[in-house]
Amino acid sequence: MIFFGLCLLVFHPIQWICFNLFGYNAHRASVALLNLSLMRCTHILGTTYSFKNPYNIPTDRPLIIVPNHQSMHDIPPIIWFMRKHHPKFVSKKELGRGIPSVSYNLRHGGSVLIDRKDSRQSLTEIAKLGRYIEKHKRSAVIFPEGTRSRTGHPKPFKATGLKLLMKNAPSALVVPISINNSWKMLKYGKFPNGIGNHISFQVHEPIEVTSDFDSVLAEAERKVVSGVTSFKS
Prior knowledge:
Its EC number is 2.3.1.51. Pathway: Lipid metabolism. GO terms for molecular function: 1-acylglycerol-3-phosphate O-acyltransferase activity. This is 1-Acylglycerol-3-phosphate O-acyltransferase. The protein contains seven helices and eight strands. Helix 1 (2-22) packs parallel to helix 4 (102-108). Strands 1, 2, 3, 4, 5, 6, 7 and 8 form an eight-stranded mixed beta sheet that branches. Helix 4 links the parallel strand 3 and strand 4. The relative contact order is 0.18. It has helices at 2-22, 24-42, 75-81, 102-108, 119-136, 159-168, 213-226, and strands spanning 48-52, 63-67, 87-92, 112-114, 139-141, 173-180, 198-203, 207-208. It is globular and about 50 Å long. It is 41% helix and 16% strand. It is an alpha/beta fold.
């Protein structure tokens, strides 16, 4: 946790310099390196990672990345291993302030912050993200479960946000990802962290967005759930 916090503190001014003096691409590179560093910090606990992506996913189309959600440790590997797709997040507004590096990136890196108590604001921001990735050929990461699963068991997908992204990014590919063992890092709460865990990410075959949003949503959920094998019994 000490090294994790130090990474956030060190990269905060680096992000500021990259964003304000050198522009978007420099800032994006600093964010990718930050998240690689955060992953390396967890090696102290014996944590290892694997990210299996057997598909040649194009970089000239927008993506809607749809993973299950188990802990905050889901996020750095997605940012690092999917960095060429410029991942942006749908995140709760509370994360947009008070956290070095993280809050700065969420506010300035293209992600959107939603107020869970204000559905109108949330839908407006998600729609804006959809139009953004459609225009710039980047990717949106949304966790359709809404909140993380503390036991690893997948929760039912909530349809509204994902459908809104598809509506506003009609040329996107939906990319389902199954995450395993991330929940074990925080199974005791924020402290102590779990040790000796192997966190795995399995990218499934992308799905074309069609006018039948319900079918696309069901297929994405089926693929994600099929790959989740690690949970608390």
